[in-house]
Specification:
Length: 138
């Protein structure tokens, strides 16, 4: 008999991870909030050109957005594969929460301009993601 299907903690983590790039986009675009376009406000007609002009933490927030999108396919795939292979759910959920937590810290370090710490956090999140993929082996 098949187990009851449910939306697991790991699946909720996929949703949170999918929303993180949009948080980064909001942070990046906040540089133009409340200003007319002619005075440097956000340019929805040419958003990419406007974003290229950002500096400091706003530019880093935009870069964090791109990296957050880049990290999504592997995380989503790892979670789905682990579920399909019936990985131990508690382990999978813990690792998924850890991955999302590390990604949030990664974004904070990116925006703060702490490049070395950011890179270490990125590497830790990558290793956790590999762990998610391999949880079915335990």
């Amino acid at each position: 008999m098949e187990p009851t299907l449910r939306f697991t903690v790991a699946y909720w983590c996929v949703l949170v991870a999918a929303l993180l790039p949009y948080v980064c986009a909001y942070l990046a675009k906040s540089a133009g909030f409340g200003k007319p376009r002619k005075q440097g406000g956000y340019d929805n007609d040419h958003p990419r050109a406007w974003l290229r002009k950002l500096t400091d933490w706003h530019a880093r927030a935009d870069a964090a957005q791109a990296n957050s999108f880049e990290a999504l396919p592997f995380f989503i795939g790892a979670v789905i594969i682990a579920h399909q292979l019936r990985a131990p759910q508690t382990m999978l959920d813990i690792l998924a929460v850890l991955f999302v937590t590390l990604r949030i810290i990664y974004i904070a370090m990116y925006v703060a301009g702490l490049a070395t710490v950011r890179s270490l956090i990125w590497a830790a999140a990558f290793v956790v993601n590999v762990g998610i993929l391999l949880t079915a082996l335990y």
